[in-house]
Every structure is written in C-alpha cells, then in structure tokens.
Specification:
By secondary structure, the chain is α/β, with parallel strands linked by helices. It has one domain: Metallo-beta-lactamase, Chain A. 24% of the residues lie in helices and 27% in strands. It is built from seven helices and twelve strands. The strands form two sheets. The chain has a seven-stranded mixed sheet with strand order 6-5-4-3-2-1-12, with helices on both faces. A five-stranded mixed sheet has the order 7-8-9-10-11, with helices on one face. The termini are far apart.
Length: 282
C-alpha cells in the first residue's frame, strides 16, 4: 500500500507540473489619438475643481499563444486628420475635440508591430460607444466578443442613450460577423490567462478584461468601467446607463485589485498612458 501511495503522490505532482496555465505573452498599449482639451467637469460632473484635460483613446494588442487579440479598436478611421464632422455629430466633435492621425488607427498600429489585420483572431469590444467600437468593420474574419446585452444596446440604443455616442456607421456593415455573445464573465481559453469580466453600468453590457502576464502578473483592463484615477476617488463618470450598476462594477474591480494583487489599467487615464503607453508589457 505504501508503494501505491508514493506512486499516486508522484503522479499528482507530475499533473501539477504539467497543467500550469498558459499566460498571455505580451500586451501592447497604444491609443487611437486623444480627446481634448476639455473641462474635466464635462466628463465627471461631480468633480469639485474645473480644469482642462486631454485623454488617450486607449487600445490594446494582446499577443497570446492561442492567437492575436485586440481589446477595443478606437475611433473610426474617418475621424482622422481633422475630419471628425464627416463621421460624428458636429456637437460631439466640438465637445470631445478628437485628435487622431491616420497612423494612430488600429490597422497602422498593427503594421507598426509587424502584424496584419488578417492576423487578428479575436476582437474584444468593451462597449459600443464610438471611441471603442469604431473600427470593428476592419476585422470581418475575427471572432468578436461582446456581451449579448451590448449588441442589443448597439443596434437599438435606448432613447436617452441616443446622444451621439452610438454611431451606427461604425458597425452597420458588421451585423453578419461571427459574434461570441456573452451573458456574464467568461474564461476565453479555459486557463485563466484571459478572462472577460462583466462590468455593466457605463453601458448595459460593458465588459473588462483580466489578463495574466508572465512578468507584470494580473492586469485588469477596465475599459470605461473606470475612466481615470478620479473615478476611484468617488466621482463617477458621465454617460452612464446606470449609476448603481456603475458603482457596483467599480467596487468589484477594486476588490479584485486588492484580493488578487491586480493592476487596474484605466480606459482613459492620461497619467497611466504617459508612463506606460506605447510599449509592450510582459
């Protein structure tokens, strides 16, 4: 019996050694230009001090062993080089003041890193606002990962959400794409290396992504669940579908940060982008 016990323990150790989870190899942080300058109180109405800010329109390229992935595709290519009013409503262009050069667009960012648009296997879209879903039509052969509720929000936004932030021209030719329609959290590869987190509030079906990187450890790309540092100080972002759900999602991400020793990388933090953007993270 003792020999059998020893063999069983040895086999168990071998299983543990051979089932280490696959990790996302590299994460590249880039931006589809920026918006601003604009008064922070136009984005965070409860913030007590007015000041002008500029915000990056963040996108991420994930080089994963099981395929190249994107998290958000930024502003539509048509917005490049001062042509905002040809694609967005004039009022939103005047408010956000996007500055996007053609080389900032996701296809050129991929080229800069040695990839082609056709190399992208999976496109994860945080939500259907114009600065996040803008270029999904560039990826007709990818698997598009969205919450099912967010697809509903995109095609048929609620009346009070029809304020210009949904641009149907961003995705009107994408209805027949291959969608993985989620209803909550989802482990993309079944190994914990890339997990979709349901974080509603900013929109009905907003989602974030949790990655496990070999050197950086656990990183959560919050998308617009958290725009910037001020949101963690108790000042909620505007354009929210539900302030109650928004607050729950912020608290959930803060708990995950604390319990899992995870890093939170925000959707539009100029401070984070200036220190960590335009580079690979491993």
């Amino acid at each position: 019996m003792k020999k059998f016990a020893i063999i069983a323990v040895a086999l168990g150790l071998l299983c543990l050694l051979n089932t280490s989870p696959v990790q996302a190899q590299k994460l590249y942080w880039t931006a589809s230009g920026q918006v601003g300058p604009l008064n922070i109180q136009s984005l965070i109405p409860s913030y007590p001090q007015a000041r002008d800010i500029k915000l990056p329109v963040n996108m991420w390229i994930i080089d994963h062993p099981k395929g190249l992935m994107l998290f958000d595709t930024g502003n539509n290519v048509a917005v490049s080089d001062g042509n905002c009013k040809s694609h967005w409503t004039a009022g939103l262009c005047d408010l956000l003041k996007p500055s996007q050069k053609r080389d900032d667009v996701i296809d050129r960012q991929l080229q800069k890193l040695g990839y082609k648009v056709s190399d992208v296997k999976i496109v994860i879209t945080s939500h259907s606002h114009l600065d996040h879903i803008g270029n999904i039509e560039m990826f007709p052969n990818a698997i598009h990962v969205l919450q099912k509720k967010e697809l509903y929000q995109a095609w048929w936004p609620e009346k009070f959400q029809r304020n210009g932030v949904h641009v149907l021209a961003d995705y009107d030719d994408a209805r027949d794409f291959n969608y993985l329609e989620l209803e909550g959290d989802y482990d993309l590869f079944g190994d914990g290396s890339a997990v979709i987190l349901s974080t509603p509030g900013h929109t009905l079906g907003h989602q974030s992504v949790k990655l496990r990187l070999p050197e950086a450890g656990t990183v959560i790309l919050t998308g617009d669940a958290i725009w910037m540092e001020e949101n963690l100080e108790g000042y909620p972002a505007s354009f929210n579908y539900s302030i109650m759900d928004y607050t729950k999602s912020v608290n959930r991400l803060k708990m995950m940060r604390d319990l899992e020793n995870a890093k939170l990388w925000f959707g539009h933090s100029a401070k984070q982008y200036e220190s960590m953007g335009e580079k690979w993270h491993k």
